[in-house]
């Protein structure tokens, strides 16, 4: 740390490892989609290159309009961001301060506490139940701004829309942010509730279900008033937050919802097969509504399993927080990748690794 740095209090978010391109890893550690973006995106990207001399669209109107149709909301209910991490940060900036603290589960997306600290916002956590589910009652009438990932990460467990609605309805004067990064893989979206509750912000991303993690495209869905507040923050931060190549590619991806839906079905079916296969091998696997599985084995520590798979060229995600130190989060890859993952798992369990 330099003698000039004034934020020694920060503990930055630690992203999953991104090996250098060309290295032959089976990468199941950051919940990327194993399939490339829709071919429709490629033509849009190529056609757009000539226009890269111009700044990107500040209002993202064409993209918002198209995405609004897909989601069944109005273009005025959407704000587009540089990945959904950016909208999470905007939400902390817009709606939290020292008298409006944040609350979220003890086991959830690691970025919530980082953004809270970055913006000097007090935060507390509420423990998940023993079975790693969120208890909705804990959040009803809590009088704080609530951040909930649904499905939750890294557990993969989802709440129903009705359970979230109870939380939203019982905190009318506080923000409830529902982070739906993984919702397309089996969660029940809260987007249909935005017309009913003016304290609800749903966030989404093209990173997972739409295969665009490297493109950095996220969005927020809310009543128009909340969107205007978030636009205020966006224009005060970086009005060109979404680059024009990504806008073009995002439009291409949305032209081809068929491919997106088919790949989601494939990931879900692979997930269920791998869950069964892991359970047959003695793993305890949490029920997942996402594109990953969260699992532990009684005979091998989470850390050792992670390390041995890594020695064999397979990356999964291990966390060190005490409650989940024995677990690993395994992204659902292609069938072929998961077959190799399972056969290497067999060898590790037999003590060959
Ligand atoms: C991946 C993820 C995000 C955001 O990813 P972006 O690539 O920034 O859109 C947000 N929340 C959760 C829980 C995630 O796992």
Q: Describe the largest sheet.
A: 7 strands, mixed
Q: Work out the number of β strands.
A: 13
Treating each run of at least 4 consecutive H or I residues as one helix, how many helices? 10
- Shape by Cα distribution: globular
Low-confidence stretches: none
- Distinct ligands: pyridoxal-5'-phosphate
Q: Sketch the topology as an H/E string, one letter per element.
A: EHHEHEHEEHEEEHHHEEHEEEH
> Going across the major beta sheet, what is the strand order?
2-8-7-6-5-3-4
Backbone CA Rg? 20 Å
Measure the end-to-end span.
39 Å
Average pLDDT over all residues: 97
Give the strand content.
Answer: 5-15%
User: Which structural class do you get from the secondary structure elements?
Assistant: alpha/beta
**Secondary structure: helix percent:** 25-40%
């Amino acid at each position: 740390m330099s003698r000039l740095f004034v934020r020694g209090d920060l503990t930055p978010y630690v992203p999953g490892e991104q090996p250098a391109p060309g290295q032959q890893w089976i990468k199941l550690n950051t919940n990327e989609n194993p399939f490339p973006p829709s071919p429709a995106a490629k033509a849009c990207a190529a056609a757009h290159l000539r226009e890269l001399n111009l700044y990107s669209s500040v209002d993202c109107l064409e993209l918002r309009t198209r995405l609004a149709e897909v989601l069944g909301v109005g273009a005025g209910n959407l704000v587009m961001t540089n990945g959904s991490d950016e909208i999470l940060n905007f939400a902390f900036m817009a709606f939290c301060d020292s008298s409006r603290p944040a609350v979220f589960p003890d086991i959830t997306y690691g970025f919530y506490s980082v953004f809270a600290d970055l913006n000097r916002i007090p935060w507390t956590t509420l423990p998940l139940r023993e079975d790693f589910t969120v208890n909705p009652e804990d959040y009803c009438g809590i009088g704080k701004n609530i951040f909930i990932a649904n499905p939750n990460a890294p557990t993969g467990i989802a709440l129903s829309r009705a359970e979230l609605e109870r939380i939203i309805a019982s905190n009318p004067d506080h923000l409830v942010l529902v982070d739906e990064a993984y919702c397309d893989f089996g969660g029940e979206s809260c987007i249909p509730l935005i017309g009913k509750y003016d304290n609800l912000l749903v966030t989404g991303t093209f990173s997972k279900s739409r295969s665009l993690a490297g493109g950095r495209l996220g969005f927020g869905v809310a009543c128009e008033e909340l969107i205007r507040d978030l636009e205020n923050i966006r224009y005060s931060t970086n009005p060109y937050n979404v680059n024009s190549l990504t806008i073009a590619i995002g439009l291409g991806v949305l032209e081809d919802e068929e491919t997106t839906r088919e790949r989601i079905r494939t990931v879900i079916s692979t997930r269920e097969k791998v869950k069964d296969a892991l359970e047959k091998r003695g793993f305890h696997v949490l029920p997942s509504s996402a594109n990953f599985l969260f699992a532990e084995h009684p005979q091998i520590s989470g850390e050792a399993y992670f390390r041995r798979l890594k020695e064999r060229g397979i990356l999964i995600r291990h966390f060190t927080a005490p409650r989940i130190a024995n677990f690993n989060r395994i992204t659902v890859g292609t069938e072929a990748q998961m077959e190799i993952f399972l056969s290497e798992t067999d060898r590790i369990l037999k003590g060959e690794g």
